[in-house]
Amino acid sequence: MFRTFTLYSTLPPDKAIQILSSSINKNSPKSISNFLGLDGDDEKFRGSIEGNSFKIMRIIHYRNSFVPVIQGTFTPSLQGSIIRGYMRCHVFAILIMILIMSVFCIQTYHSHNQSNVIILFPLFLIVLICVGFYPEAHIAKNFLRDTFQAHET
Fold first, then answer.
1. E strands, the chain, where?
2. Which of 17, 32, 106, 130 is most buried, most CB within 10 Å of its CB?
3. Domain spanning 2-151, CATH class
């Protein structure tokens, strides 16, 4: 799963980076405060900023393995800044789906089963990924748009 975005903000890149930086939890993902859900109220993301680039994930307090990894860059423009980026599934989630599909295919091949399950199970996994990923990507993009007082074209 993959989704690109371009946001146009009136904020200069330095100010946009400062705002995003204040929304990022700097603690390790395995810290006790993250485990207990005691993240700061202003911290909406976990990740890092390096120069004009960022790599973040939204902090959620429920279970969803398909929360997108968001990578992007801030580029100066005459009106402020352009934020270009993409959202993708976490590599670990993709690997787990590949493993599940591989086991299913091997099991189906060895059982010589030619039923509708061969078609339905992969479709089920695709729907599962879409239901988990796209709503989270939409929420994250809306939050970024609101944070940077940005618009899309």
1. 2-9, 24-25, 45-50, 53-58, 69-77, 80-88, 150-151
2. 17
3. alpha beta
